[in-house]
Amino acid sequence: MYTLKTAPIFLPILVLTIFSCGGKTPQLKPDEQNGDNSAENYVPQEKGLYAFFTTSKGDFVVKLFETLTPKTVENFVGLATGEKQWIDPVNNQPVKRPFYNGLTFHRVIKDFMIQGGDPLGDGTGGPGYKFEDETYKKGPELKGRINDQKTAIQVWNFIIVPYAKQYNGDVPDKDLKRIIDAAVKNQSVDELIGKTVEYFKKKIGITQPVYGLELVHTVDYGTICMANAGPNTNGSQFFIVTKREGCSWLNGKHTVFGKVVHGMDTVHKIENVPTGPGDKPLTDVVILRVEIQRIK
């Protein structure tokens, strides 16, 4: 009997690499990309919410995407300012004090990223709670002719897969079964291209509108993203991308909640420190403080 056992393996990969970015990245001026290791006198040229990092290797400034990822930004800001309660792992007691001050960048990988936000300093710590991802948002209604892989993937994920799961893959409609078998065998959704969304909805018996998803933001150079242990396991740890081409294979897997707009030279300085086992810097790189400012 045919099953959809292999379907969830290849579809998320295609979804993550083909979806276009649904969010709009703030247009940054060239001189905002790098700085002089000091953010003390830096004044952002655009309105918005900013995080000013002071570290033992220098300073940098992050513009936070509060419109695109409001829950994640609210969490980060609450922890940074001390307004949000978290659990101190030392005594397992709830506290309200600035979370990030004094923590380290505990994991650093050259040409990839720098990671911090762990009160234990070994990659296992957090604030004592977890919250959901903000990686995708509701997309437009799926309708009309399927002309590209992006649309085909959406039709597969949100129309065909839910239907086929009801029958454990052994769907009663012969045409649909042939298409599903071919898609899984070839690890491709090309079988769907050329048909219409209405064709599949009619075959399955769907009368209501079906909507896809759009990626909120891509994991680009200089972006700050939530580190996690899988879907919806965000806490306090974050990483900043130092790979200039970005990390497209992480799109949709990590919430992107801001971007460095000043001081990328500091980020690269941290990226290049000597490391030991577990990619941990041999000498601690300390986050001395994180200050939140709103520019009006």
Describe this structure in words.
- The chain has 296 residues and is of the alpha+beta class.
- It has 2 domains: 7-14 and 136-214, no CATH class; 33-134 and 218-295, Cyclophilin-like (Cyclophilin), CATH 2.40.100.
- The protein has helices at residues 7-18, 70-81, 149-166, 174-186, 197-204, 264-271; strands spanning 48-55, 58-64, 86-88, 93-95, 107-109, 113-116, 136-141, 211-215, 223-226, 238-241, 256-262, 287-295.
- It has an 8-stranded antiparallel sheet with strand order 5-6-10-9-11-2-1-12.
- Helix 1 (7-18) packs antiparallel against helix 3 (149-166) and helix 3 packs parallel to helix 5 (197-204).
Give the helix proportion (percent range): 10-25%
Count of separate DSSP helical elements: 6
Number of distinct beta strands: 12
What number of domains?
2
Shape: elongated
- Mean pLDDT metric: 88
What is the rounded Rg?
Answer: 22 Å
Strand order in space, largest sheet: 5-6-10-9-11-2-1-12
